[in-house]
Amino acid sequence: MANPSSLPLHERITRKNTIQRAFDLILLFLLFSLLVYRIASLNNHGFTWLLAFMCESWFTFLWLLTISTKWNQVEYKTYPDRLSQRVPELPPVDMFVTTADPMLEPPIITVNTVISLLAVDYPANKLACYVSDDGGSPLTFFSLVEASKFAKLWVPFCKKYNIPTRAPFRYFSSESVSSSKNYSSEFKQEWKRMKEEYDELCRKIEEAVQKSKPCDLTGDFAVFSNIERKNHPSIIKVIWENKEGLFNGLPHLVYISREKRPKHPHHYKAGAMNALTRISGVMTNAPFMLNVDCDMFANNPQIVFHSMCLFLGIENERDCAFVQSPQIFYDGLKDDPFGNQYFVLQETMSRGMAGIQAAMYQGTNCFHRRKVIYGLSPDESEAKMRNLSSINGTGINYNFVTCFLLILFSCCDLCLHVLHYFCLLGKFIEKGLDKNFGNSMDFTKSTAETFSGWKVKTDRSNNLSSFLEAARQVAACEYEYSTSWGTKVGWIYGSTTEDILTGMKIHARGWGSVFCTPDPPAFQGCAPSSGLTTMNPNEEMVHGPSRNPFQ
Q1: Count of domains observed in the chain
Q2: 411 and 390 in a common domain
Q3: Choice among 94, 133, 442, 499 that is catalytic
Q4: What is any one of the record's Gene Ontology cellular component terms (predicted)?
Q5: Is 105 assigned to a binding site?
Q6: pTM of the entire structure?
Q7: Catalytic residue at 499?
């Protein structure tokens, strides 16, 4: 019997698609035959035939690219139950939720997404959830405050009874236990209580939506008085803080509305994601980050474990810069007449791209390595343990010197203080980082930690409130000036489809990526209900990259 600690965390399985390959080749043969026919009879038909030949040549070329992309389709089978045997301490994860307009994106949908993330099966002291509200709406903040109160009851309930669906609106719409004999009386009683609490949450949010102001703008809400949607200072509120670092408690929950001014470009979602990255870097600085849209709730409570199986179990980390999960929609129309389930894209193209180590970044449902988002290449990542000079240009082998002094001084407590002061040499590392990442000392220090790969244990993750001032600094609209944010660092600017440009930039540095398709699906969202609403995101997907192809 194999040693449990030696078993792999995941398997890479090649899908059998012989019939599909045969069909693709037959179609390619027919296309080439048509081109040969056009050339052979070109003299008899003149310009019209030539024009048809050029068009068909282009379609043949596109079909050839399509075949090559989906030829070798793979999927990854993960084993979350083996993580505890292979990994002594799980890494922290920062979770990002983005929303922009409470009228277009109802707060109850955002709230359900946030609650589903807070309730995932992962140590609560390893998680932090940051919600970016680009609309600066007191309604969104009010909804999150009320949701945090409900989450304190909902999260223990889910983990106690192993509830499969952690988004309450989906759970209560599909589950009915009142007449079932398969549940204990204790569960039925708690289920009824949770249903009443959720109905009360919905009522409060619905009443707030109907008002011009969701509540009196005093206390924590005073900052929302007299602000404009596109003209306001940074607003950062720690809604809930897991100060005790409880394993089974409620993860941190932070509300963020970055500073916006009329004469400063905000770069849409890419700008919001970069602000989230910097703020979380100052506060918790987890080595992995998850980003989801406000309408994509966590459908599989084990998704963080599944992703960690890929990040931590892969042989070479250069093959896994990010882990992308597909966009799956519930309540779609039968037979998908508008194509908004993206079946071909998810089932064939994405799996095929994963087969060539290049799963496409889709802008949501994606786990990232923080150092990759910071612009680190695979070669720099591999060199960091040997010499950090490749990053900061100081020429000092900091890791070697630190390890040497650690051995030398570890024999006495007094000398450990000497080692502590020697760590001030880390400022050598910080020099050069401010040119790319900005002039925040707190963020520069966290960036140096990320690049070095140290597992430094500080009170950062359990004391978020003490970093609020530093967080406001990095959320300022002028912070990115004269830095590499949006060009070499973070989400890339220059297109409304920041996901495609960012993914291409990551792959261009030499990183690979993985397509994660657990069962049940990792995330789910509401499917567009009409052809027009389907066409809007499709138009952005097609035309977005072409607006700045040389970014």
Answers
A1: 3
A2: yes
A3: 499
A4: endomembrane system
A5: yes
A6: 0.87
A7: yes
